[in-house]
Amino acid sequence: MGGRHAGDFYRGHGPLPQFLCGTLAGMSSIRTINVELGFRSYPIVIGAGLLGGAFDLRPYVIGSDCLIVSNETVAPLYLEKLKANLVGKSIAAIELPDGEAYKTTDTLHMLLDKLVDIGANRDTTVIALGGGVVGDIAGFAAASYMRGVGFVQVPTTLLAQVDSSVGGKTGVNHPRGKNLIGAFYQPGVVLIDTQTLATLPERELKAGLAEVIKYGAIADRGFFAWLEANIDALLAGDAAALAHAIQRSCELKAEIVAEDEREGARRALLNFGHTFGHAIEHCLGYGEWLHGEAVAAGMVMAAALSDIPGDDAARLAALLQKAGLPTTPPRIGASKMLDAMGMDKKVLHKQLRFVLLKALGEAFVTADYDVRKLQQVLEAAD
Ligand code: NAD
Ligand code: GLY
Q1: Are 83 and 23 contained in the same domain?
Q2: What is the bridge-based pairing of β-strands 125-130 and 177-184?
Q3: Are 348 and 328 found together in one domain?
Q4: Ligand 1 mean position to 199 CA, how many Å?
């Protein structure tokens, strides 16, 4: 990112001091995790009721102005609460149309126009209030407007709370492929109010669980076993179980992003199931299957392509099924799917690469896979 970097706005704010981590100033219901990226480090703050004032966002809005970016579904639920948290700031807001189908350059332009219309400067902070679609678009607008303004994530879906709000991937889809246009741009803080999950439709909760299960599958066998034991509580919306799942997922993601922010190596593991999943989303038309649903079927396909001992692949499929997620791809055609996979961002020297499992809890990236096995795996889409 050229010019003044958004990180500059957060110098002096950055991560929370160590003594505040884990619990925030003695408030045991608030958990914090730092994403350690030098002067661009930032806290993920997790708790119930944070939007309502249990966490003051204002120190992260560096100037006096902010633009809250939400959508037509989330704004009626949480915009006023967020505005009340920001009292004293000059607040503008925009509601984007809802849905993956609107994660486009057109919507991005609409947002950039709004920033121009309100006379936003480099000390304006863009605040994303919503799921991964709002967060990805708002983050890219923050990254590109005047080469970078302040950015805050307030994720309101489980998927956004455990994945998309953390790590700085921002962007929009292109008609030819998913998330093809974007930038790495870290927020100054991620504020996760777990109470927002109370209004989330069940199908969206399940889609978020796909990414939670992903963390266990790629990086933490013990967490995977915990998910097997607690899947019913998670599906029932049990607050303690959800808080633990969100915390552990964010810890794992923060650790991986701190090690490999720009996906030179280990971060690619977070794309387990995504090569197949993105192709499913693209071939079906964006929004037909939810991202988490496509990733769920994609993880089962990636596990089938892997050489995993014992019953680990069956355990993964069983857990996803128990979470109410698809474990086979839709009938979109093997060759169409293979074509779509050619646009995957992990393609290197024109060669497909996959994230495969050695075992539950241990993943690796490879271009060295069994081509006949891949053909068999893709035949499930015929
Ligand atoms: P989404 O943003 O479309 O949200 C899902 C639905 O839930 C929408 O209709 C939304 O309006 C609604 N909603 C959001 N919060 C709500 C609430 N609290 N109560 C009621 N309804 C609510 O989908 P998502 O699953 O959050 O995100 C998917 C997107 O995230 C995809 O575009 C995917 O590519 C992206 N993603 C990005 C990253 C990243 O690292 N940047 C990682 C994973 C996924
Ligand atoms: N969701 C994949 C990543 O953040 O790298």
Answers
A1: yes
A2: unpaired
A3: yes
A4: 13
- Which one of 253, 261, 281, 353 is the catalytic residue? 253
Question: Mutual orientation of helices 202-219 and 221-235 as an angle, nearest 10°?
Answer: 170
Q: What is the number of the ligand 2 atom nearest to the C-alpha of 263?
A: 5
334, 382 contact by CB (below 8 A): yes
Ligand 2 geometric centre to CA of 366 (Å): 17
- If asked whether residues 233 and 157 sit together in one domain, one would say no
Residue 167 Cα to ligand 2 midpoint, Å, equals: 7
Q: Is position 345 annotated as part of the catalytic site?
A: no
* Residue 277 and residue 298 in contact, taking contact as beta carbons nearer than 8 Å: yes
Give residue 17's pLDDT: 45
Q: In this structure, are 300 and 236 located in the same domain?
A: yes
C-beta of 204 in contact with ligand 1 (< 6 A): yes
Is 282 catalytic? The answer is no
Determine how many CB atoms are found less than 10 A away from the CB of residue 13.
Answer: 15
Within a domain: 1? no
Total domains present in the chain: 2
Stated pTM of the model: 0.93
Atom of ligand 1 nearest to the CA of 99: 3
Tens digit of each residue's pLDDT (9 = 90 or more) over 180-235: 999 999 999 999 999 999 999 999 999 999 999 999 999 999 999 999 999 999 99
96 secondary structure, DSSP code: E
Query: By residue range, what is the domain housing residue 352?
Result: 202-381
With a 6 Å cutoff on the Cβ, whether 159 touches ligand 2 is no
Task: Check whether residue 155 and residue 246 sit in a common domain.
Answer: no
pLDDT class of 287 with cuts at 50, 70, 90: confident
**Residue partners of 300: CB distance under 8 A and separation at least 6:** 273, 313, 316, 317, 320, 327, 328
Q: List the catalytic residue out of 40, 103, 169, 178.
A: 169
Structure tokens at 96: 């984007």
Convert the pLDDT of each residue in 10-63 to its tens digit.
Answer: 333 455 444 344 434 334 489 999 999 999 999 999 999 999 889 999 999 989
CATH of the domain at 266: 1.20.1090.10
| Ligand nearest to the backbone CA of 273 | 2
* Set 4, 147, 358, 373: catalytic member: 147
Q: Is the CB of 196 under 6 A from ligand 1?
A: yes
pLDDT digits (tens, 9 = 90+) for 301-332: 999 999 998 999 999 999 999 999 999 999 99
